[in-house]
Amino acid sequence: MRYVGNRITKFSDPPLLTGRARYAGDITPPGTLYACFVRSKYAHARIRGIDTSRASRVPGVRALIIGDEFLDYPIFQPISTKPYKPYGAKEATVYPLVVGKVRFVGEPIVMVVAESRIAAAEAASLVDVDYDVLPAVVDPEEALKPGAPKVYDHWDGNLFMKFPSEWGDVDAAFGKAEYTLSDSVRIQRFTGQALEPRAYVADYNTIENHLTFYSSTQQPHPLRTILAETLKIPENQVRVVQPYVGGGFGLKIPPFQEEIAVAVASVKLGRPVKWVAERWEELMAGGHARDQRHYFEVAFNSDGKILGMKVRIIADMGALFPTPGWGMPLVTTIHLPTVYKVENYRIELLEIVTNKNPLNAYRGYGKECACFLMERIMDMVARRLGKDRIDIRMKNFIPPNDFPARISRYTVLDSGNYPTVLKRAVEVFEYEKWLKLKEEARKKGRYIGIGVAYELTPEGACIPGSFFLQYDAVTIKVAPTGKVLVYTGITSPGNGQETAIAQIVADNLGVSIDDVVVYQGDTDLCPYGLGNFSGRSMISGGSAALLASIELREKLRKVAARILESRPEDLEVSDGKFYVKEVPERQVTIRDAAFAIYKNPYDLAIDVEPGLEITKYFKMPNALHIPDESGYTRTYTSFPNAAHLCAVEVDIETGKFDILKYVVVDDCGKVINPMIVEGQLHGGVAQGIGGAIMEELVYSSAGQLLTTTFMDYPIPTAKEVPDMIIEHVETPSPYTPTGAKGVGESGIVGAPACLASAVEDALSDFGVKVMETPLRPSRVWRLIQEARKK
Amino acid sequence: MAVNTGGEKEVIHQPFEYFAPKTINEALKLLNKYREDAKILAGGQSLVPMMNLGIVSPKYVIDINNIGKLSEIRENKNQITIAPLVRHYEIAESKIIKRAIPMLSEAASHIGDMHIRHRGTIGGAICHADPAADYAPVLAALDAKLEIQSVKRRRIVSARNFFKDAFTTELKPNELLKAIHIQKVGQRTGTAYQKLEFVSGGYAVVGVAALVALDGEGLIEKLVVSVGGVERRPITIVFNGDVLGRKIENATIEEICGAVKDKISEPLSDIHADGEYRRSMAAVYTKRAVLKAANRALGGE
Ligand SMILES: Cc1cc2nc3c(=O)[nH]c(=O)nc-3n(C[C@H](O)[C@H](O)[C@H](O)COP(=O)(O)OP(=O)(O)OC[C@H]3O[C@@H](n4cnc5c(N)ncnc54)[C@H](O)[C@@H]3O)c2cc1C
Q1: Which residue has its alpha carbon closest to ligand 1 atom 10?
Q2: ipTM for the complex?
Q3: Chain A closest CA to B127's CA: distance in Å?
Q4: Which of A285, A301, A334 is the last residue of a domain?
Q5: Are residues B168 and B247 in the same domain?
Q6: Do A202 and A311 belong to one domain?
Q7: pTM greater than the 0.90 cutoff
């Protein structure tokens, strides 16, 4: 193995770092028109009328489209709520523009299309919308009360669904436990902000009835299907191209209202139409995340063993999008109690709609809430019993010989070695040393705290009847000259999957990585695949790449054997050559073997099929959608995990804290490229820090969003992100042929829990409890003030 | 010239007319003509974002960057004069200012990020009068004199009276800030600016400027504290008899901080920091600024 496991520089680095990468926003076909959306000023209002007469007089305006004109285009839903009908799941049809009433501030009402962006924007400012303002509901628990305003008139209330997850005998566990504790944990509403906002360019050719759609998307193929189904254009007449994407984080999973609207407008007008979101539009209407409250009770014994827990989760969905945001709290629910062996629990999830921007998938996708809850519980139990926080985790971990481990009706953890990972983190962090440093500092009036968290990052989501599954494809074509072209169904929103795929192909085909070129994101070139989400690129794409390269290599081997007058099984391959094991001087290059396949089908390549092209699909073997005899299923297929340890120092006069040290030891199975894996962890932890400390989307009681710029919605800068020490433990996935488990969401899951743990530890003299984020200085300061009063 | 090139390049949605005068007189004439409809463009770090967001939509933009005379720092025996177009980074790095009024450099070095410091100007920052901006408390503590010019009239206003309200100053629509005059601080006098920001490069949640003069015995001879970020305009306290003549020690500091807290009656409040927090932080940062200034008065850092 020459490339896998090594720090190969990402192919995408030079274009990205030199500003040469071309994004959707850089594409402007001749004759392009520009779109701008008139967005709702109110959280909840019926639209009485729309007057576009003033707007239509702006020079350059080509169309002013209102919701009713899109009634023929209900957006095709790539993920159906139908399987959740038994739990009461409701449905909502979403149109590209508001029809009837608006349900959140920023919902698009009118689409203006003009010759220039400035004309479109000016016209948009002149559209008069007559609103019949309705009372808004912004708090999920208020939304459940009788008489609360209804977000969807045809529902019987605001409850979207009630989902249970139960295991063992909770009541018995509580009955025999020595201790019980109860409290609540709350994660605020926040979301990711890709530096590249969403951007769409639709180019419809009226003569050919052909649509080319450039999108800053994470799923080109599903988007093609969605466009074809929604616009009723034959799917073979739709081409989706995903150029470079400047960050996805789950928030660019299609379809968005604007995405469909832009495509329909191009079809209606017969001209290219382009739209690039502004930052405030991303913050207001790009999809939000988190916003979960967890009320819990936990039962445990004096030895620290947790016997049972009861959890009630309140998830504020906002309104509904066709994107998979509503799955996020479900992911929290089905993965509790994460890495701990808690054999009795009763969890009830309530998903509730309100007049806010809909939830959307955001990196972490509910796993961070599960982690935050479990880690707060671990710290609470440790504190209650006066035990060390590392020990309490060791005591409760699922032991390494328990795998595969079923933890809920929906989840079986594949593999893991949690004690080894945590032990390594304790060593790397120098835990004992920091315990001493903390004590010494305390004597000098300095408040250092140590944070501990263990994240479980379920990956490889496999949701029945959706486009969120674990199969994917790789096509490899070897040219006569031995050069290799790879086409994948997985995509890269800037994080280098193409490089990892090339490493796998180069190693298994036996060629130099310099001879491998990878294409992604074009539905006319690549095999149908599901893009990127849920850390799936190596799980599904990497596996397909491995299978395809092996098959081509074996074909080449046969021809090489004939050329070398040897037996295929006597040949080795590396460095672009086949050679005879016993007599390495006898060799033939892959290029010559490839040439023979193309040029000598009747002699040297007589016993192989002509051509050197292959497409291989790989499907994760361990998902289970047909329930087994107990009625159990398996939704997620891969379970990376990581230990986080950090040290912080809190300035108790201001509540501000600095991160002094940050360690992550992760286990994402076989590491294909440590540099990419570490990059993912850096970014994940950075986003986790943002959510833990500063990011919050705040609504007024009337449902106005108060955080619409980076002034009000700060995200971490390089200064807030500490240097991280990262190490790996490799417990290979038993189900992927490479052993890789996925790493796309690692880091973000554990960071908030780790920081909360550290701040609470730093303030242990005051007896402060940290049960809520973001930990902005003013909140930490108030915790100290309140604790001092007691 | 009207800026409306069509296509997609522009982000400012309202068209405007742009002027780039070469002399102060020309600029003043334009200002006199268009008044409320016009805006001066200095570093553009506040004006342009506001235009992008549609918060202001001037019909006329008068770019003063081509007026060469407006970019100098001059020093004479007792006074430093700073022209309005001097950029934040120049103030942060200027040897003259660092030596004579360290807290002004300190304040400049905390503004925004590197790009903003290289574009943004002291004149623009002052005229914009954001309550959370950094120069205002510093200039108020120093009792800086602001030279204001219109076509017909020149006048001087103390920085302590210049800031009227949030985003509102003494300037009339036809007036331009032409210079900032600051008296050099004397012997055994220290200044310090201490800022609480939540994110690096962010505006001040609280910014406190302190000027402390000590006599030969180390007793307080003069003390001025000015607090930014907490109310709609900087709060400046020139301490009198009670504190003067006393040593810098815990009891004195507590009294100073108490006085600052008492003076704050209508603290700003937002989702990041409520009024009570800001008021308490004003006291914490007053302590930090006064201690640092006093240390500098004694020749320390
Ligand atoms: C991301 C970001 C972070 C920032 N952080 C901080 C911070 O931490 N602390 C801080 O103090 N500031 C901060 N700022 C603001 C920054 O200091 C601006 O540079 C400053 O507020 C405006 O100066 P300017 O030269 O850019 O003025 P412009 O934006 O060009 O003008 C600002 C206003 O002043 C008027 N004006 C300008 N010059 C004159 C003049 N000579 N006479 C009369 N009127 C005039 C203009 O007409 C306009 O109304 C930040 C800005 C940004 C964008």
Answers
A1: B133
A2: 0.94
A3: 20
A4: A285
A5: no
A6: no
A7: yes
